[in-house]
């Protein structure tokens, strides 16, 4: 009886040990922002351990990795970059911390748009002063551009895990179908809204606007809140163009947006460009804009 008991215990130990080994051999992947988690997960399902560098609710423009993240990145195999400003400072440091880390630039092949800036202050700079053009990193907010990113993710996962390449391919195909359905649904919601202008504090929605024939009007100027005269011009612009809702992302102070909303008898609508439920988030924005008269 003792022998049987010991045998059962030994078998259980082997089962637990095998599960630990399997868990440890799971591909470790890092992404920069939360929406990328959604895309990678759609293609990899449970074959990959996905960790997000910029934590939910944090600002990717100013984020600094936590010590435990640096420890985790030292053991990671893949890093899917997307071109956010956080990467400009930290990506090379992460690679130096883990020379075996394979960085996949999912924004490769995408032509970046310049960051939108509403022309409500013509005289703030000397006409001879040169300003370097800032490109818009928010490429994950356009379904057609996410298709490009998804292809880079698929190829990287198949290369590093060829044994499961057919599973990744099947998941990818399903995801592309979902993307196309989402794109079609958004276009239906925005039928007859071509040229519609909407106001945002931080110009995150440029690619979304470009994809669906809309125009975002940013409040902030070169990353800063507007001055009193600029605020007046924005309020006048909103009244003239019948703008009654201002999109505000929760990671940024809403003081300016709320002030404008009060002046135009409008409302501040909190929309997070970094939401995890990516597809529903885009649909929510499309519904908001589609309801505009």
Please give a structural write-up.
The chain is globular. Helix 2 crosses helix 6 (about 165-190), helix 5 (about 145-160) runs antiparallel to helix 6 and helix 6 (about 165-190) packs parallel to helix 10 (about 280-290). Helix 7 links the parallel strand 5 (about 195-200) and strand 6. A 4-stranded parallel beta sheet has the order 2-1-3-4, with helices on both faces. The N and C termini lie far apart (about 80 Å). The longest helix has 25 residues, at about 165-190. About 45% of the residues lie in helices and about 10% in strands. The chain has 2 domains: about 20-115 and about 140-185, Rossmann fold (3-Layer(aba) Sandwich), CATH 3.40.50; about 190-290, Rossmann fold (3-Layer(aba) Sandwich). It is an alpha/beta fold and about 290 residues long. It is built from 10 helices and 8 strands.
Mean pLDDT, as a whole number? 85
Alpha-beta content class: alpha/beta
Placed side by side, the strands forming the largest sheet appear as 2-1-3-4
Helices and strands, in order, run as HEHEHEHEHHEHEHEHEH
Helix content: 40-55%
Low-confidence stretches: 1-23, 120-131
CATH-defined superfamily of the largest domain: Nitrogenase molybdenum iron protein domain
Number of helices: 10
Q: What profile does the largest beta sheet have?
A: 4 strands, parallel
How much of the residues is beta strand, in percent? 5-15%
C-alpha geometry: globular
Tell me how many strands there are: 8
Structurally, the number of domains stands at 2
């Amino acid at each position: 009886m003792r022998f049987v008991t010991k045998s059962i215990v030994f078998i259980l130990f082997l089962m637990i040990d095998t599960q630990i080994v399997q868990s440890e051999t799971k591909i470790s992947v890092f992404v920069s922002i939360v929406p990328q988690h959604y895309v990678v997960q759609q293609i990899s399902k449970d074959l990959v351990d996905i960790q997000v560098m910029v934590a939910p609710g944090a600002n990717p423009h100013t984020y600094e990795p936590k010590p435990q993240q640096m420890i985790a990145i030292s053991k990671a195999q893949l890093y899917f970059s997307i071109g956010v400003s956080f990467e400009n400072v930290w990506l090379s440091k992460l690679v130096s911390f883990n020379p075996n880390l394979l960085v996949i630039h999912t924004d490769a092949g995408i032509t970046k748009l310049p960051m939108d800036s509403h022309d409500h202050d013509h005289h703030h700079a000397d006409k001879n002063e040169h300003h370097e053009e800032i490109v818009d990193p928010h490429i994950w907010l356009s379904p057609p551009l996410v298709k490009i990113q998804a292809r880079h993710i698929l190829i990287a996962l198949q290369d590093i895990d060829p044994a499961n390449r057919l599973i990744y391919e099947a998941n990818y195909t399903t995801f592309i179908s979902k993307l196309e359905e989402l794109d079609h649904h958004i276009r239906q919601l925005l039928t007859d809204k071509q040229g519609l202008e909407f106001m945002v504090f931080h110009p995150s929605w440029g690619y979304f606007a470009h994809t669906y024939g809309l125009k975002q009007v940013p409040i902030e100027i070169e990353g800063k809140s507007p001055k009193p005269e600029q605020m007046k011009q924005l309020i006048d612009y909103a009244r003239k163009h019948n703008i009654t809702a201002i999109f505000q992302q929760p990671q940024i102070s809403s003081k300016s947006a709320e002030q404008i909303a009060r002046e135009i008898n409008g409302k501040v609508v909190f929309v997070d460009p970094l939401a995890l439920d990516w597809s529903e988030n885009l649909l929510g924005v499309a519904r908001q804009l589609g309801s505009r008269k």
